[in-house]
Records
---
Amino acid sequence: MKITGKKNNNFFRKNAAGWMLMVPSLILFAYFVWIPLLESVRISMYSAKGIKLQQFVGFKNYADVFHHPDFLPALRNTFSYTLWSLIIGFLVPIVLALFISEIRRGKSFFKVGIYLPNIVPGMAMVLMFGFIFRPGQTGILNILLAKIGLPPSAWLTNPHFTKPLIIIALTWKGAGATALLYIAGLQGIDPELYEAAIIDGAGIWRRIVNITLPCIYNLAHTLLILQIISVFQILYEPLVMTNGGPNNASISIMQLMYRYAFERYDYPKASAVAVIICLILIVLTVVYNKVNRKRDY
């Protein structure tokens, strides 16, 4: 028993500095993440009048959310946003990073250039793309098309275009910051690998496929799941650009939560939607990590 006690004391002494650094972060994380999440679970189990909880109703709010006519379109659109973000938004930062890493002059200029959209306030970006893709004769893109003799397009009022166009706007704003992370990862690759490949006669494409991409695989793996989590919570882009239209073609599950909370003031159902989103993201993260572990083995 004495030996065990001494071991425990030595363990805490050795790790005291680490715990001192971690505890403030853990407290803040618990206060701003776990406590609100648990409070959302509690609120979702009650009925309410305004912000005052009335009585315990169990899973009734969840049942009402599942049976709401906008729930399935919102869930389907959210997965569609995630898919489009992987098709459009995931590869763009990698291509930008590879391009900037390969050029010899002007790297700083291009780094600043691709990061500038990230400085633009999100709402200003959404309004700007709303003007660009506005249907009819007043949209900026349609005005440019008219200059070269092409007819105007419906753009954001066309249900086939809304989600890709919203993802393009989202990618324009966020791709630069992600590309800088990839550039930092590329700078950590040993230059001798490229020198050996060049001596062996490998062209740029073979160097990218056989050296660059495998070396940034772990970074891309992390950024991919972070992108899925981020895009799954998309809200103000469809809210401002299309208000979920046309005919719920672009409504997201976060927008459904927004409508419950700030249009109907039904906070228990809004909390139920928040819990559903959290559970879906947990499941997606666990499945994604398991699939990647199997591939690694």
---
Amino acid sequence: MFKKVLIANRGAIACRVIRSLKKLGIQSVAVYSEADRDSLHVSLADEAIFIGDSAAQQSYLNIEKILAAAQHTGAEAIHPGYGFLSENAAFCDLCEQQGIAFIGPTSQQMRDFGLKHTARALAIQNNVPLLPGSQLLIDLDDALIQADQIGYPVMLKSTAGGGGIGMRLVWSEQELKEAYQTVSYLAQANFKDAGLYLEKFVENARHIEVQIFGDGQGHVIALGERDCSVQRRNQKVIEETPAPHLNEEQRRYIQQVAIQLMQSVQYRSAGTVEVGIFNRSPFN
């Protein structure tokens, strides 16, 4: 058990972690920027360290300052919350190198699941059902060939995309020709890895997410599922749990598939496996 944990986040996220640490009898260290000097998480924590100006790049995304705060306070672990540095594999590696535990997935797991084409490859290796799709596309000509094999309509996606950025629904060869350069540009402008791939588009599918937790030793449990089908601009608006209109067989099946995938990489920490359901058949 850790004696002291630094929370590399702010606001409600940090407050929730601090309250949990208090229940466990673990000391907490908050970090804060100029804008958050009077925030609740600063006063709730046992210690608080100022890490810079209001801009996130100069504070909550400043790896050097976060690690310096941990070393200065003697924190044995860092909890990143979500957002900011929570999915930064390089930060995870630096924590380990300095003898500080990173409370989250391993850096390799971040790399494996951080890019959609590598996540698809892992799913295929472990017999997890997937929608038809491609590997990384070489160029527009390759995209046209792959789309013809998959069958329109298709989604053109950035492998590193998120938040609805870097994706386009394509209904025909002409639309693909028009969209390819635009999506490629968006991927290059917003993500470190600008690779693109294709995936079959299915209308009227349900977006279900299975919450899992792994101990890093191959033991993984499912903590239920939620329906995230109500979306606006590819962003979830409502999450409903347990997911309605699933029978027990479907519920057990999608949870088992999620467990199977995460056990294959000995996943550590909390995670989410997204499942698409249409015609009563689940596809990740």
---
Amino acid sequence: MSSNAKVLSILLWIVALLFVGYGILKYGCNSDSCRIFTFQKIATADSFERCAELGFPVMESYPRQCKAGDKTFTENVGGVSNDMIRVTSPLANAVVNSPLVVKGEARGNWYFEASFPVRLYDANGKELVVLPAQAKGDWMTTEFVPFEVILAFGTPTTETGLLVLQKDNPSGLPEHDASVSIPVRFSAVSIGKNSGTLQGSITLGPICPVERMDQPCLPTPEMYAARKVSIYLSDKKTLVTTVIPDAKGKFSAILPAGDYWVAMETSSGVGSVQGLPALIHIGRGTTSSISVSVDTGIR
């Protein structure tokens, strides 16, 4: 065999081996360790999760996106769902502000008396609001029943929070507890860039039927704490937050700018309250003050 023929034979063997190697890499190995070329990884990427696993760049948009060659995959951030409850709004990690509409559907045995509690916390675990979600149909069933609740809340001090939908458990037994949690992000408006302050003070009395000069009857911290102040939107129905006066009868709340209906809870019909209820305007970057006088009715 001539030298030229030998060279040609060697080249043909090299080309054949390259083709065999290419075929093995492309079709004969399903392990990521075999995917050493970018074209292999692009061909394999078929979802956001797979794209990210293969090391392609992830864009920090919402929802996040991963780009593999000319293919773009979007992260699935659909609503929370399990066999008992499905939440369609808000989505996980969605940007929210007040009022927040929470909706979805839950099986009838998630409810009790056609409702279940929904709580919103900030990142420090502070409860911002708790309200019952109401069934929008007959809840006396094991099938899914739609629900909805509108959460109006005061200004959070953290950028993120947690929405918790709890199964109503009238028995109080821990084995019947259940809940789903959805991480949320508060908008710039919600975290105080368009908010003001409501502050107030309460005077409370008389405390004793007969008061002696040397033994004055003073309100206790518990007496002030029993006079909770409820803050609603201007519709007088949608609860934003409830604040409890401190040991000296002072209270305050940071709220998005707007109009609010402020009322005081009373435990009985005895006595009277002056100064509340009232429609209060909260301006951006301002403080609105109110004074409340509570006549206990003690004579």
---
Amino acid sequence: MQNLFLGIDGGGTNCRARLADENLNILAQVRGGPANTTIGDGSQAYNSIIDVSHQVFKEAGLSQSDMTRTIACLGLAGAHLESSRRDFAAREYPFAKTLVHNDVETAREGAHLGEDGAVLIVGTGSAGLAKVKGEYFPVGGWGYHISDTASGAILGRALARRSIEVLDGLSEGSPLTEVVIDHLGGTQNSLMAWSFKAWPKDFASLAPFVVEHFEKNDPIALELMQFEFDQIEQFINWFKARGAQKLAIVGGLGERLIPILTERFGDYVQAAKSDAQNGALLMAQKAA
């Protein structure tokens, strides 16, 4: 029987699966829960992967037995960590073959359709990867606690911190902090309680408020976004120093910023030619 190919893009906020036939014609695609391999013991990510896999086969009108003729490629946030990648590669999957990569590898493959070029994920987390004359150059992606400086999670956390400072009377507020304070319950106690339960995806959920108010010239939004642009520029300079001729920006926050980034940094910055799920499908097809 003909092979099927499954491409999964597992991020800190959601997990997306795309099923294709041997010619990479799309049969079905679905979205599920978070799939960062380093959150907890990895069970949440693993369960999200298995869940979207079952969903996408059902959506395509195929049975679970068809999984045994499927080559799956998983591009997962957190699989940058070698121990995490090994852990997920060793887990049980219902497929004929399962490839485990980190999400920036599949994103880069999709963004440039296998050709040379760099990619920067600017989503819940952030990480980059360039391919120059067949050589790969990874950067960032070491997690929310010590890295991910261009991410929505870090931007959202900065906004939460500024908001609690405003409530404490340590700094002046703005319409941006007013909206976010109200969104998080209106008091120091409510913000504190929210923060104790917040995952990176929860902090990242605040980033759209920053972008929205940046477009309105809110002073705090302008300050926070300048930090974001500085981080992205640092990556741009890093990629250029390694010979990358173009940079695709991907991820929910990054894609929203592309018009602003092209205005600031020119046509070196561009939208991806395709997405991470397609990148995963291309990698799965190569492994057939």
